[in-house]
Amino acid sequence: MFTPQGPTFRELAVQALSSVEHGYDLLAPKFDHTPFRTPDPVLRSVARELERIGPFDSGLDLCCGTGAGIDVLRSVCRERITGVDISAGMLAVARERTRAGGPPVTWVRGDARALPFGPAFDLVVSFGAFGHFLPRELPGLFAQVHSVLRPGGRFAFPVVAPARPGSPGYWALLAFDTAMRVRNAVWRPPFVMYYRAFRLSDVRRELIRAGFIVDLHTLPEFGRRDDGSPRCRMVVATRQG
Q1: What distance in Å separates the CA atoms of residue 59 and residue 122, rounded to the nearest whole number?
Q2: Which ranges carry the Methyltransferase domain (predicted)?
């Protein structure tokens, strides 16, 4: 799962015993060499779907981390791009890896639960960040995204189908979430990261409550499960005009 350039077990342990913000500050220099970074096939697939919907003028990468999603915005945005993240360490790496050309990119340190923007964006994307928010935080999070989108603007992100009960993936994610709950019960500050808490049915309901129209786009590159349902979808939530 980890390359030789990735973090050591000790470094991961120190990160896991830190807050979310400080933990990612520590992990930032080696984050792109971990399985926590969104895989390139997912980024490319989302970009292709957004190209069918766009183009857009201004784009925001919510919880941008080291900037993997910025290239998605570069492919569909014409004027300007912004990345926002709570970790100064992750933003520092993102700045370093920003390539020349395309729309200008601005990096902003901020909390997704209190975004420092007005309604300035036509597209907001996010990749791999929602496990850091408890279910009770979703209404406020989606309200923040709604507030920074212009009327008709889109909020897009991929969602992977949950592992089948009893499968190796199911037990692995259950074990991880259980370990995190035990850790947060006995250690402070908490490190919120739960893979099984972000359920599509709940997400869709809360997006609608926040004032979005919600569509689901199948990402065909990832195939279908035995029951015919897609393995991966892209949620596209449109702010009503």
Answers
A1: 6
A2: 60-153
